[in-house]
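Quiz preparation item.
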């Protein structure tokens, strides 16, 4: 994850936007609340290797 994203310089704001879009996709497909939380946690665990540290 880190080498795949480091050169993209992804910001905190861009990450937050991705989370909102992702939640919208899950809601549109009627993914239940528990699974939504689990998926957000899994994706969230990759944040330190995705958002550029500065
Ligand atoms: C705001 C959040 C994210 C953005 C803007 C983003 C954007 C990108 C872009 C543009 C690439 C291609 C980089 C290149 O080839 O030069 C990439 C690669 C990749 N991303 Fe993301 N990404 C984000 C989050 C995530 C998340 C949350 C995951 C998985 C949980 C993920 C998994 C991957 C993987 C596995 C690759 C490498 C694919 C490959 O080498 O073929 N990314 N990402």
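Solution:
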């Amino acid at each position: 994850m880190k080498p795949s994203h480091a050169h993209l310089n992804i910001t905190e704001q861009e990450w937050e936007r991705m989370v909102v879009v992702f939640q919208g996709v899950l809601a549109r497909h009627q993914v239940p609340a528990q699974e939504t939380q689990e998926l957000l946690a899994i994706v969230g665990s990759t944040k330190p290797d995705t958002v550029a540290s500065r």
